[in-house]
Amino acid sequence: MSLVLDAAAQDLLFREARTANAFTDEPVTDEQIRAVYDLVKYGPTAYNQTPLRITLVRSPGARERLVRHMSEGNRAKTAAAPLVAILAADIEFHEELPRLLPHFPQAKAMYDTLRPVREHSALVNGALQAAYFIVGIRAAGLAAGPMSGFDSVGVQKEFLDDDHTPLMVVNIGLPAGSPRPRSPRLDVDEVVTTV
Amino acid sequence: MSLVLDAAAQDLLFREARTANAFTDEPVTDEQIRAVYDLVKYGPTAYNQTPLRITLVRSPGARERLVRHMSEGNRAKTAAAPLVAILAADIEFHEELPRLLPHFPQAKAMYDTLRPVREHSALVNGALQAAYFIVGIRAAGLAAGPMSGFDSVGVQKEFLDDDHTPLMVVNIGLPAGSPRPRSPRLDVDEVVTTV
Known about the structure:
Chain A is built from nine helices and five strands, in the order ααβααβαααβαβαβ. Chain A is an alpha+beta fold. Chains A and B meet through helix 1, helix 2, strand 1, helix 7 and strand 5 of A and helix 1, helix 2, strand 1, helix 7 and strand 5 of B. Chains A, B: This is NADH dehydrogenase/NAD(P)H nitroreductase.
């Protein structure tokens, strides 16, 4: 056995955890989201950029506005989930770097001039943090239903601004019903090569 | 306490885990990498794309070629780490979708025509998997030193091909010495808003 993490934690976070498409009525509290964030905020990003921003869609009106921008197949489950979060990347993350990376004061200047560089970096590092967040949702005993099927420009205009790019929409709650059989994964020998 | 994951696992994966810049001489085995992959391969990606590809740089010659493409500040630690991995995203991931998403045979056709759509999707979903991989390295009791400071085009030409985009280079091993004090993180109220 090459892993140090105990088997129950392996199961909770990866092996038994499944993307959920249906949930019980049990609410997801702000305290749970705070606990998830306060754990996964420590996940590493390049230059400690931490560009992830999270919008919790709680009011019925906001939920309705979001559902309109989801792909047809994602609408019913997004309307019904106990909580829905829009995960986005802040392209102006560099404004916070003097505070986030005090031992490297030049960091902000590295990103000041080139917005396309910031866009690429925010996308990659925001996605890293989105993955940590999904792992954190599972660490809270909840299930995540991450979705990429939505009108990104529509969601951005409705809930964000030009400086925030949507990464995904995530349904969150206690899972209900049985998931479909797990889809296959690539074998390690198809993914890992050695030089 | 809002989390279900036990405190030791929280510490191992997030709270006590730190990016490492120096390592002991203890080797990192193929069995360890296999165990990491076989755990984190279950992390979710859009349409089960799983575009992450991993190149383990083991031979002295390959290590030397890689170090040349690293930023100056990353060279010494990349030369000295027990193992170095290049994480890349496969832009042609859609070729595997008929096998990876058997319940949705239309998936491949969704990506067939538009390479820019695949590039964006591979980048985001490859980054999700890179984050799962970093969590998995920690689950194996190892430390990761992920780096974005390298000549991406150079690394791509040297080790990959036009269909594989480098995401990051990761040093892997048992950490040595004391890390610098942890950099600050944004407070939950700076990151999470509710609508």
